[in-house]
Amino acid sequence: MTEHNVSPRQATGRREGAVILLGSSLTIVGSVMVAPILPKLFAEFGPVEPNAELLVPLAITGPALAIALCAPLAGWLADRFGRKNLLVLATLLYALLGATPALLNDLTAIVGVRLLFGCAEAAIMTCCATLIADYWKGEERFKYVNYQVVTIGVMGALFFVIGGVLGEHSWRTPFYLYLLPILLVPAMLKILWEPPRQATALTIELPEGRVNVGALLIGYLLIFSGMVLGFIVTVQTPTLLVGLGVTSSTMIGMAAGFGLLSTLLGSLLWPLMRRMLGIRGCNALLLTLLALGLWLLANAQSYNAVLLAVFFHGIGAGLLVPNAMAPVMNALTPRTLGRGMGGFTASLYIGQFASPLVVAAVIALGVDLRGAISALALASLVGACLWLLAQLRTRSTQSTPTSAS
Fold it and tell me: Exposed, middle or buried: residue 390 (CB in 10 Å: 0-12, 13-18, 19+)?
C-alpha cells in the first residue's frame, strides 16, 4: 500500500518527536544527576552503615540492574497493551520514586527505592524506542534514532553539572529534581497516540515476516559490551579524580558533563560516519575511540588529562547507541518491536550494571584500578580489529560497500 493510503493519524510530525525525545532523556538523567554526590553518600552513611561500600555504588548503578531485568517485561507489555499508556504511567512512577530518596535516612531503603525507580526507567526507555520504530521508517527512523541519542547527551551533560552543583549543598537536593517529568505527562497524553495494530505494518521498514535473529543477537552483544566499556568512565572517573586530589562534586560533575558533551559530538557525527564507513566500519571506529579514551584515563595524572580521556571516550560512546540500535530495529517485525527493543534496552543496562563488576573481576587478577582500565582498553581495541576485518571482508565480497544494515 502506498503512503497516500495511510491514515493522516500516522503522518507524524515534530511534536511527537519532541515528546518522545524528552521522554528518552529521562533515562540518562536518572543516573547522571546523582553520580556526582557519590562521595557525599559515602561520607553520610559510611560511618553508620557497615555495607556502605557495596550499597552506595548500588544506589547509583542499581537502577541499571532493574532496567535490565524489567525491560523485556516492559517490551511484552508494550506489545500486548500499547505503548502510550505504559509510558505515561512509567513517567509518573519515575517522578515519584525518583524523589523519594530525598526523604529517606536509611541507605538500604534508598537502594530499594532506586531499584523500583529503575523499573519505571525500563518502561520509559522501551516505550520511547518502540514508538520511534512505530512512527517512522527508513532515513526518518535513522534521523530520530540519532536525535534521541543527541537529546540524551545534551540533557545528561546539563543535569550532570546541575546535580554536582546542587550536591554541594546536600546529597538530598538533586533527588527533588526528579519531580520535573510530571510536567511532561500532559504533553504525552495530548500529543502521542497509539499506532493501530493493522496500520503499524505500513509505518515500519520491514514487512511482517521473520525476525533476523543473527542481526538481533549481534546488536545485543555489541550494546552490552559497549556499555561495559562505556560506563567505566561514569563509575570510575570520580574515584580517579579523588585520587588526584579533586574532591569537589562540582568539578567531578563538570568532568562527567564534558564527557557527555563529547557523547553528543559523537552522536552528531554518526550519520556522516555511517554513510562513509558503514555499520561495521563505524563499529571499528567507535571501539577504537573507546579504547583510546580508556587508555588515556588509566594514565591520566591531572584533571586536564582526565578531560582529554573522557573527550575521546565520549565520542566513541556517542557513536555506539545509534549504530547498534538502528540494525536491531530493522531486524524486527511489527509484532515484535516492543519485545525486541525491550531486549535491546535490557542488554544496554546489563552492560552498565556489569561494568563495575567486570572492573572488579580484572582487579581481582592482581592489578590496580588503572591496570584494570588499561586491560579493558586493550579488549576494546581487539574488538575494533575484529569489526575492521568484517568490514574489509564485506568490501572484498561485494561490488559496493554496505553503507547501512
Answer: middle
